UniProtKB/TrEMBL annotation:
Residues 170-182 have a biased composition (Basic and acidic residues). Residues 126-182 are annotated as: Disordered. GO terms for molecular function: 5'-3' DNA exonuclease activity; 5'-3' RNA exonuclease activity. Residues 126-151 have a biased composition (Low complexity). This is PHP domain-containing protein. Residues 170-232 form the Polymerase/histidinol phosphatase N-terminal domain. It comes from the Bacteria.
Length: 494
């Protein structure tokens, strides 16, 4: 925007950091007849010390735009632009209603006071265009829950499935230029197809502005998702039909409210990179029953993945049915370190559609792929299911396929019960069977409503048949992991 009327101008310094200071708010009075707003936030970014995001909200609290500060340290000029004829990245196009808007500064990293400037300018609608603008405004405001360009919702646009029942490989964590990604949505979609993926979730931080860019693609399943990016943890929200208020670092709006909104839409909540420093999951007021998925394999988290799998087993042994998934957290598919297809979530779905993938994730017949495939049945019940155990007898059948020598680890309630080397048959499925017994006493001793046991299996690279240290210790970690299957629960008779 060149020129325009200045509605807000602030030159000041951030206050001293405080434990409960997460947002700064500036009211903004927008007069009648405005066609476009432009917000500019300028400050010097200090990585993990001073990082500020800007948010623009309509008078009724409707989200209109969010802008982040990707990249390294140095001066930042962040711009939000919204108007009836278009919007900038991360922002939602549409009429600009008169009234008191709000600028929210999200103090994502606030460990030092720092100067910043904030300005908002407005472009006026030419008088000759007023009747047309007024008519358009009436239509858009009255149908705010429908068009995909509006943050309140998206049109129901049924698409034919890309396939029938079967396994679908996909990516559940990626970012485009609508938040802090480096590439447009189209580049992510192209990279997903080139990696042989059948579904993709673009999980831009805070915003649903990227949803409009999903509509141009019909030969891959695209999930309507976003990432909740709070100061005490991140979570992906999948299978949405409307924007979710993810600003939970304020009184009166919690993760419980977010989860309720997501579940009302038929969607899923996934805790991300739970041990990632300042981005670790510390929302201790959130009941795990409100969480559907957890990242157990994150492409860029290294040894933190071992802690994530440990947390997952703790949750499972406590009776929480949380499904383990993978994510690359890709911000640039052209970067070899982030390229799609290196860590993959594989879902058995009734059909290749958004609803099919979401329901498949919910049911839990899901595996994490890092070079090998796995499928597990316990007494005939699939991953995510519950098996009966007549007489307490349990048979765990693990199907595995790999292009390298691998070892199968079978776990009960997070503890190893067997380690079996697979035959060296590159690219071929083979079955490994392990037997166990579960008693009524096991069931009575189980914590929470676990009521029995769960079994799951992992595939790891074989360190060598002549490695006595490995076979004595059964060491496994994120570096050797090639596949992880989700649990099958067992209820003994009696």
């Amino acid at each position: 925007m060149i020129g325009g009327t200045e509605l807000l101008s602030v030159t000041t310094t951030l206050p001293e950091p405080a434990f409960d200071l997460h947002y700064l708010h500036y009211p903004l009075d927008v007069p009648e007849g405005v066609s476009e707003l432009e917000l500019v936030l300028e400050y010097d970014k200090v990585v993990d010390v001073v990082q500020i995001y800007a948010v623009l909200l309509e008078p009724d609290g409707t989200f209109r735009g969010h802008v982040q500060c990707p990249g390294g340290p140095g001066p930042r000029r962040l711009v939000i632009r919204v108007g009836a004829d278009g919007a900038g990245p991360g922002c939602v196009a549409g009429p600009v209603p008169a009234g008191r808007w709000t600028v929210r500064l999200d103090l994502d990293r606030h460990k030092a006071a720092a100067p910043y400037t904030l300005t908002v300018r407005a472009a006026q609608t030419p008088a000759a265009a007023e009747p047309a603008r007024g008519a358009a405004t009436g239509v858009a405001r009255g149908a705010a829950a429908e068009p995909a360009t509006r943050p309140g919702g998206r049109e129901a646009r049924p698409r034919p499935p890309i396939g029938g029942p079967g396994w679908y490989r996909g990516e559940l964590h990626s970012h485009s230029a609508h938040s802090d990604g480096r590439r447009p949505v189209a580049d992510l979609v192209r990279a997903a197809k080139e990696a042989g993926l059948g579904f993709l979730a673009v999980t831009d931080h805070f915003t649903a502005a990227h949803w409009l860019d999903l509509d141009a693609h019909d030969d891959i399943v695209l999930l309507h998702s976003m990432e909740l990016t709070s100061h005490r943890g991140h979570a992906n929200l999948h299978g949405l039909t409307r924007w979710v208020d993810t600003y939970v670092d304020r009184p009166g709006h919690t993760m419980v409210d977010v989860a309720a909104d997501v579940h009302e839409q038929g969607g899923l909540v996934c805790v991300n990179h739970a041990f990632s420093g300042d981005q670790a999951w510390r929302r201790f007021d959130t009941p795990w029953d409100a969480v559907d998925l957890i990242e157990i394999a994150h492409l860029q988290q290294g040894a933190n993945n071992d802690a994530q799998i440990g947390l997952w087993d703790r949750l499972l042994t406590s009776g929480h049915r949380v499904i383990g998934v993978a994510g690359s957290d890709c911000h640039d598919p052209a970067d070899p370190g982030q390229a799609l297809g290196q860590v993959v979530t594989v879902v058995y779905a009734d059909e290749g559609s958004e609803r099919g993938i979401v329901e498949g994730l919910r049911r839990g017949r899901v595996r994490v792929w890092r070079g090998a495939d796995i499928d597990t049945r316990v007494n005939g019940a699939p991953m995510g299911g519950t098996a009966a155990a007549p007489g307490g007898r349990v048979q765990i059948d693990v199907d595995v396929r790999a292009d390298e020598p691998v070892v199968v680890f079978v776990l009960r309630d997070g503890l190893l019960i067997n380690v079996v080397p697979a035959a060296d048959k590159p690219g071929e499925w083979q079955r490994i069977t392990v037997e166990d017994r579960i008693t009524v006493e096991d069931r009575l001793a189980a914590p929470g409503d676990h009521s029995g046991a769960y079994y799951r299996a992992e595939v790891h690279a074989d360190p060598g048949r002549n490695d006595p240290q490995f076979w004595a210790s059964s060491l496994r970690d994120h570096g050797s992991l090639r596949a992880a299957g989700n649990p099958v629960w067992v209820r003994p008779d009696g």
